[in-house]
Specification:
The protein is of the alpha+beta class. Helices cover 15% and strands 28% of the residues. A hairpin with a 4-residue loop joins strand 1 (10-18) and strand 2.
């Protein structure tokens, strides 16, 4: 009988990015059924760009989830 206790489809992972002045918190979605897609936490990216004075750009294709 196969052990499928690790046969998951999707889950999330907490992410903590730490700079000298600030801590950024978010999460990542890992979905084994999705290929060729990237999930981006737009609020985190906005906060990182502002904090590090980076000019953000819009993606050519996006879809809200």
């Amino acid at each position: 009988m196969p052990d499928d206790s690790f046969d998951f489809k999707s889950f999330t992972v907490d992410i903590i990015l730490n700079s000298l002045e600030k801590i950024f918190r978010s999460f990542a979605l890992i979905d084994m059924r999705v290929t060729d897609m990237t999930f981006i936490d737009e609020s985190l990216m906005s906060e990182l760009c502002e904090h590090f004075d980076i000019q953000s750009i819009s993606l050519s294709k996006s879809k809200l989830i």
